[in-house]
């Protein structure tokens, strides 16, 4: 996850980036909407903050989601992320790719068949603004 925070800029020839605890900076309230269970951070991440205000955070969390199985024994698992309070006027969730980066995925029981991510904008009855979410889908098949 990355964003630019103009309050975190500086001019220095010596230091172009710093690493800060995420509790010490503002972070968008992007959460997973449809979890069955979530663990706290496996490792509490540090934010990498660059002198131009660009912030990079790579959280390490374990999420448990509900998956459905079809007649071909293909499991489809989805997880949807979005801001809990910020509309599209404040936060614009942007896809860096329409595919998930699963190069580090290893599982002795399942293989990944397909994956995708879809960005949606939704208007709720409470509010005039649009709210953005990202829905990630992974399809798995049990290894034989």
Automatic annotation (TrEMBL):
**Domain Neurotransmitter-gated ion-channel ligand-binding residues, every copy:** 1-144
Q: Which GO molecular function terms does the record list?
A: extracellular ligand-gated monoatomic ion channel activity; transmembrane signaling receptor activity
Q: Which InterPro entries match?
A: Neur_chan_lig-bd, Neur_chan_lig-bd_sf, Neur_channel
Signal peptide positions on this chain: none
Pfam families associated with the record: Neur_chan_LBD
Q: Give any Gene Ontology cellular component.
A: membrane
Return the PANTHER family for the record: NEUROTRANSMITTER GATED ION CHANNEL
Q: What is this protein called?
A: DgyrCDS14976
Q: What organism is this sequence from?
A: Dimorphilus gyrociliatus
